[in-house]
Design brief:
Length: 347
Amino acid sequence: MHDQMRRVVVIALSLTAMAGASATFAQAPAQLYEAAKKEGVVYWYTGLLQNQIVKPAASAFEKKYPGVRVEIVGGSDTELLDKINDEIKIGKLQADVIDGPSMASQVIKAGRAAPFKPANASNVGTLNKDPNGLWIAPALFFLTASVNTDLVKPNEEPKTLEDLLNPKWKGKMAWAGEIGTAGQAGFIGAILDQLGETKGMAYLNKLAAQQITTVPSNARVVMDKVIAGEYAIGLVTYNHHAARSKAQGAPIKSIMLEPIVATMPRLTLLKGALHPNGAKLLIDYLLSAEGQQLFSDAGYIPAASNVQAKDPSLKLDPAKHKLFSPTPQQELQHLDRWIELYKDKFQ
């Protein structure tokens, strides 16, 4: 059984003995705060960059809501899913709220997501939240290719997918080893969606011959290696990371090589959480104007329409760009195949 599927099965089987929380909708923050203070703490399992956004957001939240402490548990989607599985196995679930791009689909399939529609959800577009309140995005991610500008001159930049097949890029490209939509699997899904099954598979076979290096970490680390000159091109890297590093003087640039994977961290309240009110209060805060401004200040692309990104050009318009943005339901339908194709052709 595939590792990703095994995680879902383990969670699902473990949940049958656990009582689920009922749906909760749009409670006022003041009411949530009183209830959250009695809980005293909220456990936030997150894949977001800790120094850049998580710790500043947690600190601001604790200042606004004294008496509610935020405990941060960081890691990749895979690592955090494994940790949640382990907690459930021993009957000691610690996680209250999660946000990984590919975690929501697994948690939803397992029946682990608790419906919650925060009061501040109205400013988030319909494509960036679940209609039943199972998840909502505090930020938007656009995964583009990136190049080291010292190694790749403007006239050499790949403009199309075919350009990646140029022999001069063989062994000079990298992508992250983290499995999920925000990685190689998402890139493969985007290729198949854009080119269709026959042409898409033919293209992937050619791309595999380019000997793309899999870096056993996340997209940020891949970009750091591109900046360091270890690779000329990073595939499936965050455009907001490139903008932030470029502003700091790094030789990095995002290139609009389409299709572009568009995804998001999906805040999800866990069913059976020990601190559900603290989790709801944190979710609502991250979606408030104050919370969204923190994302903007940190260089992220806020999901709320009433708060602009520091660099508005980072928020790509689907009317102008070919974006590939699968829903959690679509991930459940296709992700395992994309992962298998990656393992078969690129490992």
